[in-house]
Specification:
six-stranded parallel beta sheet, 2 domains, 434 residues, NAD(P)-bd_dom_sf, Rossmann fold, 19 helices, alpha/beta, binds uridine-5'-diphosphate-xylopyranose
Length: 434
């Protein structure tokens, strides 16, 4: 199969490299010439475990190429994937579809022969209809179908998620397009991954429903964690106690500083807006978004409380900045709210993150960056763990305690055990545990 991938961002690059690895002939197109030049030099613009190797292998074997212009790639492709960004529109929270619609116009102008146009970007219900209308308007003669095929990739585990998906969702009522999509995903299909065919609008909504449900699950356990602290219960035991019930499931029940990242905050807001527009408001998700937004700053206040009620003039060491481990992504990271709350309260911040410090410099001001975790802790009045990088699980606690001016640790990811930390003489606070 010949595949064109429009957008060489996170989703486009991972999907393109994985499709090439299945044996398809893939061209990833991006309008940013610097990105294409870098990819052609073998440099990967994002940090994702295993991606650099996968790209290099498929480029070497001739199945993966990069281009700045989509014409040639689209002309020869049987399937063209739209994997461009859909950021939250400033002001109203709706998904901004400018890039998707521009891609549809550009694809329409270039396509030749029967072409399946696939939206992989997360797009509100009805976007496929609009993409179809735009293509038809631009090229009344075109022979094509528009399919929704949302991705469910987690950053940091994207390649595994792509190659071993829980399911593949294919939204189309066009039988020929269904055939092309089945062929593209054949290696997974043969590997027993369920391939779910449904209407295009249903597929579009399924993506939002999945992310909103997961965000709800996290927010639920976060609120239970707050209650645990008040009543003297342990949230990890509660999570295990409910998670082993198959109807609930044990995943996404880790209490923490609130969800962040490029998907959950944006997708919950977009779902809320769509539901309001159709006069079918989803109140539970409205509440989830509001609770999560408040939680991030509340975590800053938790650190202030751990420091005896004031952080004015104190140095707070922050370990972990990215919204989760194994990524360099700072989008909607809880660390931003935690740090700004502490700065507003008069604290000086010293931070360390294995991959996120460059990206952090663009969103945070007045932060000193350390060269490692111990350097970060040096003479600090408290240490806060915001992101659970594996590196922080294996710290030498004796060395850490010696580095700190005050042995105060606020562990927002429940990385350490309260009994052990107390035994070692730390003043230790975590989430949902005493
Ligand atoms: C998510 C979805 O998982 C993926 O299917 C979708 O396609 C894109 O959005 P991602 O944003 O990469 O993926 O990260 P994920 O691992 O889902 O974590 C999202 C946020 O929730 C992170 O801030 C994480 O720290 C937080 N989280 C996750 C928790 O606080 N507790 C949990 O139990 C799980």
């Amino acid at each position: 199969m010949r595949v064109a991938m429009i957008g060489a961002g996170y989703v486009g690059l991972v999907s393109g490299a994985c499709f090439a690895d299945f044996g398809h002939d893939v061209c990833c197109v991006d309008k940013d010439p610097a990105k294409i030049d870098a990819l052609n030099r073998g440099e990967i613009p994002i940090f994702e475990p295993g991606l650099a190797e996968l790209v290099a292998k498929n480029v070497r074997e001739g199945r993966l190429t990069f281009a700045g212009d989509l014409s040639d790639a689209v002309k020869s492709a049987e399937a063209v994937f739209i994997a461009v960004g859909t950021p939250s529109r400033r002001g109203d929270g709706h998904a901004d579809l400018t890039y998707v619609y521009q891609a549809a116009r550009d694809i329409a102008a270039a396509m030749d022969g029967y072409t399946v146009v696939v939206t992989k970007s997360t797009v509100p219900v009805g976007t496929g209809d609009e993409v179809e209308r735009i293509i038809r308007e631009t090229r009344p003669d075109a022979d094509f179908a528009v399919v929704s095929n949302p991705e469910f990739l987690r950053e940091g585990a994207a390649i595994t998620d792509f190659k071993r998906p829980d399911r593949i969702v294919i939204g189309t009522e066009d039988e020929r397009a269904k055939g092309v999509m089945t062929e593209i995903y054949r290696p997974l299909y043969l590997n027993q991954s369920p391939l779910l065919a449904m209407s295009r609008r249903t597929a579009e909504l399924t993506k939002y429903a999945a992310n909103a449900f997961l965000a709800t699950k996290i927010t639920f356990i976060n609120e239970i964690a707050d209650l645990c602290e008040q009543v003297g219960a342990n949230v990890q035991d509660v999570a295990r106690g409910i998670g082993l019930d198959n109807r609930i499931g044990s995943k996404f029940l880790h209490a923490g500083p609130g969800y962040g990242g490029s998907c959950f905050p944006k997708d919950t807001l977009a779902l809320i807006k769509t539901a309001q527009d159709y006069e079918a408001p989803i109140r539970i998700v409205e509440t989830v978004a509001a609770v999560n937004a408040q939680r991030k700053r509340a975590m800053g206040r938790k650190v202030v409380a751990a420091c005896g009620g004031s952080v004015r003039g104190k140095t707070i060491a922050v370990l972990g900045l990215t919204f989760k481990p194994n990524t360099d992504d700072m989008r909607d990271a809880p660390s931003i709210d935690v740090i700004t709350t502490l700065q507003d309260a008069g604290a000086n911040i010293r931070a360390y993150d294995p991959e996120g410090m460059e990206a952090a410099k663009a969103v945070l001001t007045n932060v000193d960056y350390a060269k490692d975790a111990y350097d970060c802790a040096r003479n600090a009045d408290a240490l806060v763990i915001v992101t659970e990088w594996d590196l922080f699980r294996a710290l030498d606690l004796t060395r850490l305690k010696a580095a700190l001016a005050e042995p105060v640790v606020v562990d927002l990811r429940n990385v350490y055990r309260p009994d052990e930390m107390q035994r070692r003489g730390f003043t230790y606070m975590s989430v949902g545990r005493l």
